[in-house]
Design brief:
A hairpin with a 2-residue loop joins strand 1 (about 25) and strand 2. Strands 3, 16, 17, 19, 22, 24, 25, 26, 28, 29, 30, 31, 33 and 34 form a 14-stranded mixed β-sheet that branches. The protein is of the alpha+beta class. It has 16 helices and 39 strands.
Length: about 800
């Protein structure tokens, strides 16, 4: 049996070990050769149903089409900054309630226009309720907040940025207890503020009880999310998989305890005023030992705990997770409880490290004339470098879900809104590894790589941080990774990083700040940047003339800041690898370093007029780094020149660890190249950028190909070329400028014209015909495959998520 076959058999054993061994009292003995995640094996547990008392509360809902009469406009003449002093125009229409803000509603100097409407409700206990979901539409930038009232007072809760694309979005706003002085409240309002007069429409409002997620059964699984303190990056957004019980509850597993065994887990509750007791016992031959016993009552955070089972090594015991509480039915949360031993795994760990917005053109690893990536250059001697790797789209929302599923974005339904979820039956990289017994974790500072796309699905632990400075994200994410490793030390594991060190806005830190841009130049750049943006934006050359800003100097300074951020990111990545080596994990870890898309850096200031016409396979837009390391398996120093795609990453990693790929994956494994183990045939690389035109119901956009020497782009639209669709489904200025071109098909010679200045349509009609057929055929195949996947719905967007998108420059 060769090594790769052994790895496959081992991982297969991990995935089915719950069905191996003997039985005890009607449930099976779980073998432990790698981390045993109890939440994955609840079907093999034995438990007794308890009364679901907490499930009696029902959500409170208002469909404002039918209940608009229950709501009234609000104004407070005594409050100058929080609430409007003048009634906003409030009217009902076929979709709900419309608020129109005018000069009469001008108030606060920062958000000068405001309006609010309120309604009364039966007295509620704040500790029973989780959050409010408001479905609303914005025609221009604004903020929306939920307001609570008690004893004649109104207190504002969390506010959320609104997406001003004219579409309905769901905004999920937690009920923050610290904003409510009284335990009970009996009034609710919706407050909208804006910097300009405008129109805002609200479709529905729902108050959701905490217990609603746990009302269907006495024992079940869930994904728990604590937002934490927005000012504390360590708790910016933390998700854990869990199983829950209703007290008194008992969940019992039969387990063969390995050498050096320990259980790592978190405990959590829903209410501060109701304590819950957590207890773990082992039962063997009539002997009962209490391993853990603690009462917990803090609903604002989780408590991480660890229990040593080393003295039970080699024994088959019943492990019991039990709960009790003074209130029958109280919910108890067991967060990612995991049993691990000290045996060395046969399957490798996997770290998929994505540097968000890292263009290969700006890395010295790829020949850039500034030493921006000296650590990657040094490490390349231990790994394999792909010199011409391409992302499948030019921005994170689209590209990330493509490489996480190995499916083009048009197959997944095309882009509709910022809150699109991937379809439920599209299997992600995390789900593949979780099903194979791996511990799984995501560490990101871009919510599109997790919670804003549905990519947190099935992941054991997810950290989405909101660093005060984007350029410090990697350092903070690495700290969270090592904290996770200390709390869950079992192997193998799969971890996905997606950092924003080189993402706007560029703020390199010492000692990297100053490498290429002096403090004086940095200050000038910031002043110029704001002036040009206020004067009309960077794509408007006249804005530079009106402000007197030197466009070339502005571009040069931005390039320098970007390069400093790249050097900082490279340094932090080098530190991560060094620590992996120090801990002994490097030798058994596959590390993939990549990016979700390229970045024009300072050059886009110079190229702004041509950007709308340039194909997406422009090297600054989609050429990305791709470097793969696996000590002892992948020969170091290899460099591959053939074009490859980020959509190839998932089948490659599955191939390397010996897991089967899905039949519907559109990428191909690069394993034969990396392991020098067989034939590999290069094939065209496609870029797929489609969004929904809501007026026609059709996907519009571009499908492109890089095919050896040639690159071609086919633009698909549902209307006359040059006619702008009235909806703005895409980010930025709209569909027409980001996804369709004036010329339906363009072909370029990448060898003689790498920066795509001269289409060759007129001189090579044979290539025009060839690529028109190829791209049309590929799009047709994508549309056929898309029938297997329906739209995944939309995410209820939290204020923290929307603030993060704003800080990254995706929304206004």
């Amino acid at each position: 049996m060769d090594q790769r076959t052994r790895r496959f058999v081992y991982v297969l054993f991990l995935s089915v070990c719950s069905g191996c061994g003997g039985s005890s009292g009607g449930h099976r003995t779980l073998g432990v050769q790698g981390p045993l995640k109890f939440v994955e094996h609840l079907e093999w547990a034995r438990y007794e149903d308890s009364k679901v008392v907490d499930g009696e509360l029902e959500p409170i809902e208002w469909d404002l089409v039918e209940t608009a009469s229950e709501w009234k406009p609000f104004a407070d003449p005594n409050e100058a900054t929080v609430y409007p002093r003048q009634l906003a125009k409030m009217e009902t229409f076929e979709g709900g309630i419309r608020l129109t803000l005018t000069e009469e509603n001008r108030d606060d100097p920062w958000w000068p226009y405001s309006g609010m409407f309120t309604s009364c409700l039966a007295e509620l206990n704040r500790e029973d309720w989780s959050h409010v979901v408001v479905k609303a539409r914005a025609m221009q930038p604004g903020r929306i907040s939920v307001v609570f009232g008690s004893e004649g007072k109104l207190l504002k809760s969390v506010g959320s940025v609104m997406i001003s694309d004219g579409l309905v979005h769901s905004y999920k706003m937690p009920i923050r207890w610290e904003y409510l002085a009284d335990a009970r409240w009996n009034r609710i309002g919706v407050l909208v503020v804006s910097k300009t007069p405008g129109v805002f429409e609200v479709e529905s409002i729902e108050i959701v009880p905490k217990s609603a997620r746990y009302a269907d059964s006495s024992v079940g699984t869930s994904q728990e999310w604590i937002v934490g303190d927005p000012g504390n990056w360590t708790e910016g957004g933390h998700i854990r998989r869990a199983f829950y019980t209703h007290a008194p509850g008992r969940v019992e597993y039969r387990v063969q305890v390995p050498d050096g065994a320990r259980i790592d887990f978190g405990v959590g509750v829903l209410r501060n005023d109701i304590p819950v007791g957590f207890r773990i016992t082992s039962e063997n031959g009539g002997e009962v030992e209490t391993l853990f016993d603690e009462e917990y009552r803090d609903a604002t955070k989780w408590a991480q705990r660890s229990v040593d089972l080393g003295h039970l090594a080699g024994k088959a015991v019943n492990l019991v997770f039990a709960n009790d509480s003074p209130q029958e039915g109280a919910v108890a949360l067991w967060l990612t409880p995991t049993l691990s031993g000290n045996g060395r795994p046969q399957s490798p760990n996997v770290i998929f490290y994505v540097i968000d917005g890292a263009g290969a053109d700006w890395m010295s690893l790829y020949g850039y004339n500034r030493r921006t990536t000296p650590n990657l250059e040094r490490l390349a001697a231990e790994g394999a470098v792909f010199e011409n790797a391409y992302s499948n789209a030019t921005w994170t929302k689209l590209s990330t879900v493509s490489y996480m599923t190995s499916l083009y974005y048009s197959v997944l339904g095309g882009h509709r809104t910022h809150s699109d979820r991937i379809p439920e039956n599209a299997i992600t990289m995390a789900q593949h590894f979780g099903a194979a017994g791996y511990q799984t974790a995501v560490f990101t500072s871009n919510p599109y790589a997790a919670t804003m796309s549905g990519l947190e699905r099935g992941v054991d632990t997810v950290h989405v941080i909101d660093p005060k400075i984007n350029s410090t994200s990697s350092n903070q994410l690495h700290d969270l990774f090592w904290k996770w490793r200390s709390e869950h030390p079992g192997q193998p594991y799969w971890a996905h990083f997606q950092t924003t060190d080189v993402h706007e806005y560029f703020e390199p830190q010492a000692p990297f700040a100053g490498l290429y841009v002096s403090p004086q130049q940095r200050a000038a750049y910031k002043a110029w940047d704001k002036a040009v943006e206020d004067a009309g934006g960077f794509s408007d050359r006249d804005a530079y003339k009106r402000t007197g800003v030197d466009i070339e100097a502005h571009a040069l300074f931005q390039q320098g800041l970007y390069d400093e951020c790249m050097a900082q990111q490279d340094f932090e990545l080098g530190r991560l690898v060094e620590r992996l080596k120090e801990t002994g994990e490097w030798e058994n870890t596959i590390l993939i370093v990549a990016s979700d898309h390229g970045y024009p850096a300072g050059s886009h200031r110079l190229m702004a007029p041509m950007e709308a016409a340039a194909p997406f396979f422009h090297p600054f837009a989609t050429r990305v780094p791709l470097v793969v390391f696996w000590p002892g398996h992948i020969q170091g120093g290899q460099r591959f020149k053939d074009a490859v795609s980020m959509i190839d990453v998932l089948p490659t990693i599955l191939d390397l660890v010996g897991l089967a790929a899905d039949d519907v994956m559109q990428g191909q494994s690069l394993g034969p190249l990396l392991l020098q183990s067989g034939e590999w045939t290069p094939r065209p690389v496609f870029i797929d950028m489609f969004a929904m035109d809501f007026d026609s119901g059709q996907l519009i956009g571009s499908i492109e190909v890089v095919d050896g020497r040639w690159g071609a782009s086919l633009s698909i639209t549902s209307r006359s070329r040059g006619e702008a669709p009235p909806n703005r489904a895409m980010h930025g200025d709209g569909l027409e400028s980001h996804y369709t071109r004036e010329r339906p098909l363009v072909v370029y010679d990448l060898w003689s014209d790498p920066f795509l200045q001269r289409p060759i349509n007129d001189t090579r009609p044979d290539l025009v015909a060839r690529y028109e057929r190829m791209l049309a055929d590929q799009l047709e195949a994508n549309m056929i495959l898309a029938r297997n996947f329906g739209p995944g719905g939309r995410i209820e967007m939290t204020p923290e998520q929307l603030e993060r998108l704003k800080s990254l420059g995706y929304i206004e």
